[in-house]
């Protein structure tokens, strides 16, 4: 457990195409930390020197703790109303909540939080929908879309909605029907900013997880073992794909001359190569900067993972961060207020 925990320390800096064990450790870090905490207490009670191993492992993963927890007493930053930009990122799970008889009222979220820019992942809409009617349903007058999967009955992809004019946008094609990224240049009060919306490679382990549970119910140990190997191999492949996608996104960030905001569902944790590579040395994680308390964005796996992010470069000041708990999707939205430094008096 100490070896796996320590290897996770190197996950943000190690391309999984070269060595994938740190990436695996980074994804399962919540369980690894709990295991090491248990071992620390066990060896402390036994008064054995082994207590040092879990202790060192926990201390070395300081970066993980700051990625999921921030002081709830963090001091707020005062700001002048109307200078802020409110941006939100939300994986809407294909708007499947419509089928769950939950009122489809994303416009209310936009109005209640005065959202200016809304980045959506797993967007789904009927192809014959009128674009003007769709914009009204979201409460924002401008939008750009990248539908990388188009069926006769629906289009799937990602979208950026904006209160301000979108003057140009570009697609970042991963050659995937499930995942993609895009960027949009948005004109805000005479300044142009570039917003990236990302939906990186999905883990896709659910079918094999169900198969594992089926084997477990009939006590088929060989079937369980085979399925576990398949899951690990699938995770390894997806780590590599996400790494390559993050390199692709970062290349465009590096050629951008405008202030940059990066949003999206990364399907990976704050201690991952994909997250760290996209952030680079100039993108600030909004949660680390202005978040308070325990931060998670994914409702599955007991709410242990934060895999959705909003980040921004040195042109911006983070003001507020929130992630309201909603049962509509398997993700919670993340909402931030930020401000261009040049507008600060």
Outline the secondary-structure elements.
Layout: H1 2-9, H2 21-27, H3 29-46, H4 52-60, H5 62-68, E1 69-70, E2 84-91, H6 106-112, E3 117-125, H7 131-138, E4 142-150, E5 155-162, E6 166-172, E7 180-188, E8 191-199, H8 206-217, H9 221-254, E9 260-265, H10 273-279, E10 284-285, H11 286-290, E11 293-294, E12 308-312, E13 316-322, E14 334-340
Parallel strand pairs: 2-3, 8-9
Antiparallel strand pairs: 1-11, 2-14, 3-5, 4-5, 6-7, 7-8, 9-12, 10-12, 13-14
Tell me what the structure shows.
By secondary structure, the chain is of the alpha+beta class. It has 2 domains: 2-60, no CATH class; 84-203 and 235-343, Endonuclease/exonuclease/phosphatase (Deoxyribonuclease I, Chain A), CATH 3.60.10. The protein is built from 11 helices and 14 strands. A 6-stranded mixed β-sheet has the order 4-5-3-2-14-13. It has a 6-stranded mixed β-sheet with strand order 6-7-8-9-12-10. Strands 1-11 form a two-stranded antiparallel sheet. A hairpin with a 7-residue loop joins strand 6 and strand 7 (180-188). Helix 9 (221-254) packs parallel to helix 10. The protein is globular, with a radius of gyration of 21 Å. The N and C termini lie far apart (51 Å). 39% of the residues are buried.
């Amino acid at each position: 457990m100490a070896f796996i925990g320590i290897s996770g320390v190197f996950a943000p800096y190690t391309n999984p195409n070269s060595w994938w064990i740190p990436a695996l450790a980074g994804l399962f870090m919540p369980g690894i930390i709990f295991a090491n905490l248990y071992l620390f207490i066990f060896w402390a009670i036994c008064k054995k020197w082994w207590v040092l191993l879990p202790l060192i492992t926990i201390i070395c993963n300081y970066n993980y703790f700051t990625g999921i927890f921030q002081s709830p007493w963090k001091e707020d930053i005062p700001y002048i109303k109307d200078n802020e930009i409110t941006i939100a990122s939300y994986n809407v799970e294909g708007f499947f909540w419509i089928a769950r008889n939950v009122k489809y009222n994303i416009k209310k979220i936009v109005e209640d939080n005065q959202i200016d820019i809304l980045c959506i992942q797993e967007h789904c809409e009927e192809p014959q929908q009128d674009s003007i009617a769709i914009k009204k349903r979201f409460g924002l007058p401008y939008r750009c879309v990248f539908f990388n999967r188009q069926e006769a009955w629906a289009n799937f992809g990602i979208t950026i909605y904006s209160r301000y004019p979108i003057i140009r946008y570009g697609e970042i094609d991963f050659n995937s029907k499930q995942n993609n990224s895009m960027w949009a240049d948005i004109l805000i009060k005479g300044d142009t900013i570039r917003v990236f919306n990302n939906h990186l490679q999905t883990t896709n382990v659910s079918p094999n997880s169900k198969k594992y549970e089926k084997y477990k119910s009939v006590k088929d140990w060989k079937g369980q073992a085979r399925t576990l190997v398949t899951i690990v191999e699938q995770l390894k492949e997806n780590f590599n794909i996400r790494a390559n996608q993050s390199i692709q996104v970062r290349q465009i960030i590096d050629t951008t001359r405008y202030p940059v905001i990066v949003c999206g569902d990364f399907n990976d944790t704050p201690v991952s190569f994909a997250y760290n590579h996209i952030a680079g040395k100039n993108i600030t994680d909004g949660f680390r900067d202005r978040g308070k308390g325990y931060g998670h964005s994914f409702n599955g796996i007991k709410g242990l993972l934060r895999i959705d992010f909003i980040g921004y470069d040195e042109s911006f000041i983070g003001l507020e961060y929130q992630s309201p708990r909603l049962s509509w999707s398997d993700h919670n939205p993340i909402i931030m207020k930020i401000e261009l430094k040049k507008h600060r008096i």
